[in-house]
Amino acid sequence: xxxxxxxxxxxxxxxxxxxxxxxxxxxxxxxxxxxxxxxxxxxxxxxxxxxxxxxxxxxxxxxxxxxx
Length: 68
What we know:
By secondary structure, the chain is an alpha+beta fold. The chain has one helix and three strands, in the order αβββ.
């Protein structure tokens, strides 16, 4: 029996199979931009899709934002 204690409140430990893990990793790496200075990462941004309602409020347009 093993006990896993997480340092953050309201967090969950997830178990995924190897194929799903590799797919998730590829997706994150494909949508990540790193700004480097003097060989060190100083800013890391992830491109995240968001849905925005169009003017007629009946359809959504996919836009992207960057989060750090």
